[in-house]
Amino acid sequence: AREFQEIQGFETKSIHTADPRSEVFGSLTVPLYMTSTYVFPNAETGGARFAGEEPGMIYSRIANPTVEVLEKAMAELEGAEAGLAFGSGMGAISAVLIAMIKSGDHILCSDGLYGCTYGLLTMLKEKFGVQFDLVDMADMERVRAAMRPETKVVYVETPINPTLKVVDLQAVADIAHAGGAQLVVDNTFMTPYLQQPLQHGADVVVHSATKYLGGHGDLIAGVAVGRKAFLDELRFSTLKDIGAVMAPMEAWLILRGIKTLSLRMERHCENAKKVAEFLHQHPKVTNVYFPGDENHPQKDLIARQMRGSGGMIAFEVETLEGGRTLMNSVRLAQLAVSLGEATTLIQHPASMTHAVVPADVRRDEMGIADGLVRLSVGLEHPQDIIADLEQALAKIS
Ligand code: MET
């Protein structure tokens, strides 16, 4: 790969960082290494690779050349020392958290988390005695007060799935570090094009690469980026032994996806702005949650931390039944979980992505109303997305 110190533009990096020109055939795109294992030239070399004394491939659960190109590309795009790829976003989150904590430790979380992340924390608590709390991170006094001597990790989504609350990363990072904890940020909703948490004090960034990074709804994958020493440790311990690895074909597809990441994110942002404006003025829509709102109370923070407001919108209609009618009436938008792809997707957090969260926690701590609907605004023409929502909202009695 080329040297990138002088290249400033994200667009340029996202296209050239996976440059495989050292390949014998001069292939423009990254070769796909579909292999489980690697032949050692001799017994001594095999032993030396296992001992970590010599570089070189061993086995694709530990590293794979195609996957390694993606890991380097993601590190480059997030401004990290290193990256590590996983079989899913949850694979990345599990490996990172398990590497950082032990029984009796405490994890402090934003007051909203993807449902399966909450499920993982609950499992770690019930089976291994790892404590966790959700705290409203709009108020730094509360974050400070919720820190404990055993707090080893502060875990943040921003914007939060699905409520779209925004958290001040630098302020939380300062509190975490003052208390001896590390800050882990799930950057799935933003991607490194819109937000780079490591530049705002985070120690590790995790992604579901299934979403915007892949961008086409055709794969499941995850990535973590951060310091090389931590990720090396993860590669040779937690990731290796948990085995939640990314397949080379997935890495290849994501490398293809990130070449157009900047273009796609720009359009997702533009489309979502137009859709949010439409929803705001619609009489049947009671609440809209969108970081791109003109009069958003955290406008300064959003401008400081995010290059754009993203493609995700959450909103409420008056009744649960109304929400159901809406979701059953869309024609262009598809009723499905997941997000960040070309197709507009609509789903109901309370019964779908966040169904695993107990109802009281979901409502009272996370602020997810039963009637909340989440929209992942796609890349269709904005007028078509709006027309579809308009006809579906008209079906609500
Ligand atoms: N993380 C995805 C989402 O928020 C997948 C969902 S539920 C299994 O939509």
Structure description:
This protein has 16 helices and 12 strands. It has 397 residues and is α/β, with parallel strands linked by helices. The strands form 2 sheets. Strands 1-7-6-5-4-2-3 form a 7-stranded mixed sheet, with helices on both faces. Helix 14 packs across helix 16 (382-394). Bound molecules: methionine. Methionine (MET) is lined by residues 114, 161, 208, 337-339, 353.
Keywords:
single chain; about 400 residues; alpha/beta; seven-stranded mixed sheet; five-stranded mixed sheet; globular; binds methionine
What order do the helices and strands come in, and which of them pair?
Layout: H1 10-16, H2 43-50, H3 65-78, E1 82-86, H4 89-100, E2 106-110, H5 115-128, E3 131-135, H6 140-146, E4 151-157, H7 169-178, E5 182-186, H8 191-194, E6 204-208, E7 222-226, H9 228-236, H10 238-242, H11 248-259, H12 261-281, E8 285-289, H13 299-305, E9 312-317, H14 320-329, E10 334-335, E11 345-347, H15 359-365, E12 372-376, H16 382-394
Parallel strand pairs: 2-3, 2-4, 4-5, 5-6, 10-11
Antiparallel strand pairs: 1-7, 6-7, 8-9, 9-12, 11-12
The site of methionine has 7 residues, from loops.
